[in-house]
Amino acid sequence: MKSLHYRPDIDGLRAVAIGSVVLYHLDFSTFSGGYTGVDVFFVISGFLITSILYREIGNRSFSFISFYERRIRRIFPALFAVFLGTSACAYFLLLPKDLESFFQSITAATLFSSNILFWKTAGYFDWPAEMKPLLHTWSLSIEEQFYIVYPLLLLWMARLAPGRTPLCLAGIGLVSLFSSEFFLHGQSPSVFYLLHFRAWELLLGALLALDITSSPVPQSVREALSLIGLILIAVGVFIFDDQTLFPGVKALFPCLGAAMIIYAGKQGHTVIGKLLSLKPLVWIGLISYSLYLWHWPLIVFAKYYVVHPLENHEKAILLIFSFFLAAVSWRFVERPFRGKSGVLSRKTLIGSAVLGMSGFVAVGLLGHFAKGFPGRLPDSVVALADASFKTRQLDGNCIDISRSRIDNGEACLLGDNSGTPASFVVWGDSHALAMGEAIHLAADKIGVTGLLFAHSSCPPLLEVERFDAFERGCREFNQATRLWLEKNKNIRTVFLVARWAISAEGTRYGSEPGRPVVISSEGIKGNPQALKAGLQRTLHFLNERGIRVVLVAQMPEIGWNVPSTLARAQLFGHHVSMVMPTYEAYRERQHTMSRIIDELSAQYPFKVFEVARVMCPSDACLIEKGGRSFYKDDDHISIYGAELLAEPLTDMFQTHLADYRHER
Fold first, then answer.
1. Residues 6+ apart with CB under 8 A from 252
2. What is the arrangement of strands in the sheet containing 412-415, beginning at the earlier edge strand?
3. What is the largest CA-CA distance in the chain?
4. In 3-state terms, the chain is what percent helix, strand and coil (to 5)?
5. Is there a contact between 394 and 116 (Cβ–Cβ < 8 Å)?
6. What are the backbone dihedrals phi and psi of residue 608, each rounded to the nearest 5 degrees, phi first?
């Protein structure tokens, strides 16, 4: 294998990748798919690391200790500096629950498992993820997980099947790619975050380093390849957006684009290669690692502090400051440790790395068990923020219950817990979990018992499935609930609760990030009909069994996280400049759902509980009172909002369910 020589065009390619990522994170709409820059980094990493590994294995000079020493010198100094800086900022800026989450992420990032943590706790495009200062470390975790296994794999193949190494790597890569596309439509967060769905991107770069063919490639072909490669990268950066199902096969655009540029430059310069070798781009490429590490925490902390969407001049300041910190970090933190002549001997370096990792893990665990140190903030701020996670009767164990729990009726109790048989059921999505707190208070007051059957992102629509990337299993959950109701004849009333408008319209509300919600095989345009048909089947089933139905209209959507925004505004002394909710906006958002309700009410008898009548006593809708947020986030009711709805729900119980006591 040829010796590895420095290629400035690869640093230029790094500049394209990091520039795309940073501008995307700064919410410049032109770079709507800038997140694909990370995929370019994966290909570059696979190519460069394999170039070194394969050469060393071939000349029998490979050493695990030397390899991981290089990784430590490359990764740890700047990463630890970012950990120190973000920890200090987080302690003074973040609300308790957010700080607790930060400490969890610093522990996971230190152990190179943050991709697993973020997969378990949030999707990349949702609200909580957007406010996590160390979210971007997911890609570092994937790389380091890969490089724990990869050298062993290369060694094994070099000894057992040296001539088939490219074929083996290609086979593994294809399995990874096909798995990514197959599972993308059912478990998008896992496909985005987990190594086995991303390994093909690193392996694509690795294949470029194996010199599968040494035949000269005509200059015209290399020029065409590099140009096509740049176009493919541009498609990802400028055409893709947050609604694109990604990665899957669509990740071939940035990955093949990067691979073509790297391959085209292996036998000499191209026009694209010369452009990428320009000194400004090369310099950005050199500081790209530090720039990647620093830019995201700066953006998160800035958004967190200003409590409003960033304006252009604020974005410009953040961009300049990110480059400044990256340049300083590269010059005074990264470079001194690089290479065999870097500061610290191997023994001292490894010892320092272990000590540093142990320290950050300890700090992370301390912050986690201290629940984010709530005592450092005013009680009024903590009380506002508490609405996001405070529960009374229902917690996370009450949602997404298994089929066996449904079959056995092992659902969370609502209302009276003295042992009386359940006479009502609350059936729906996460809004059923939230609204269940209000129904619990009302039921408990008059002494009746019910059960909660709730599944995330799953409205109670029989034979309807979610076709978007986040959720599958909705149809099965609703069918299991139906079967349980068929077997339990003591259930006389069912409350149907969901975020109806998002299924009817398919779109998020306000500035809420996230992909469209699709419940029809025809796409969003088929959502209204699918919703109506599914609800009709649900009403027909319940009506046939003589079960009374209360359809709970959804909470007014706000479009911004109410408790977090109000708490931060109070903490930092800022005015909330967000658009406030109105009853008129609520009616407009609910237009399609209201029409469906009107049409079905002519066929089936059911009661509609109008939440907005309570939450919007005038044109302005209520979001808080007395320092207590009525919302958990931007659309779910909190336990304080539940208290507001308990009284009208109690009246409904007494009016429509008065025969409970007579039946017992």
1. 177, 232
2. 412-415, 449-454, 424-428, 493-497, 548-552, 607-609
3. 90
4. 65, 5, 30
5. no
6. -110, 125
- At residue 90 the predicted structure's pLDDT band, cuts being 50, 70 and 90, is very high
- Residue 653 C-beta-side C-alpha neighbours within 13 Å: 25
Q: How far apart, in whole angstroms, are the C-alpha atoms of residue 446 and residue 450?
A: 12
Contact partners, residue 282, CB within 8 Å, separation at least 6: 8, 11, 12, 15
Instruction: Report residue 95 as tokens.
Output: 């609300």
Give CB contacts under 8 A, 24+ apart, made by 68-75. Answer: 69/346, 69/349, 69/350, 71/144, 71/147, 72/349, 72/350, 72/353, 73/337, 73/338, 73/339, 73/342, 73/349, 74/289, 74/338, 75/140, 75/144
Q: Per DSSP, what are the bridge partners of residue 637?
A: 631
Helix intervals (H) in 370-392? 379-386
Across-strand partners of 549? 494
HEC letters along 188-235: HHHHHHCHHHHHHHHHHHHHHCCCCCCCCCCHHHHHHHHHHHHHHHHH
Question: Tell me, what DSSP letter sits at residue 526?
Answer: G
Contacts of 295 (CB under 8 A, 6+ apart): 21, 22, 25, 318, 322, 326
Q: List the structure tokens of 579.
A: 């658009």
Q: Which amino acid is at 51?
A: S
**Entry field: residues in the chain:** 664
- Measured in degrees and rounded to the nearest 5, phi and psi for residue 583 equal -65, -35
The number of CA neighbours under 13 Å toward the Cβ of 248 is: 15
Task: Enumerate the β-bridge partners of residue 582.
Answer: 620
Per the DSSP assignment, residues forming a β-bridge with 494 are: 425, 549
- Rounded to a whole number of angstroms, the CA Rg of the chain reads 28
Residue 602: alpha-carbon gap to chain centroid:
41
Side chain identity at residue 116, one-letter code = I
Q: Using CA atoms, how far apart are residues 403 and 453, in angstroms rounded to an integer?
A: 11
Mean pLDDT of 406-420: 89
- Tens digit of each residue's pLDDT (9 = 90 or more) over 416-453: 888 889 999 999 999 999 999 999 999 999 999 999 99
Q: Confidence band (pLDDT; 50, 70, 90) for 510?
A: confident
Residue 162 corresponds to which tokens in the numbers above?
């040296």
Sorted by sequence, the CB contacts under 8 Å of residue 380 that are 6+ apart come out as 570, 627
The residue among 522, 521, 523, 528 whose CA lies nearest residue 505 is 528
Integer CA distances (angstroms), 183 to 89, 116, 175, in order: 37, 16, 12
**Contacts of 173 by beta carbon, 8 Å cutoff, 6+ apart:** 199, 200, 203, 204, 207
Tell which residue, 375, 359, 295, 288, has the closest CA to residue 86.
Answer: 295
pLDDT attached to residue 539: 98
| Residues 425, 267: Cα–Cα separation, whole Å | 69
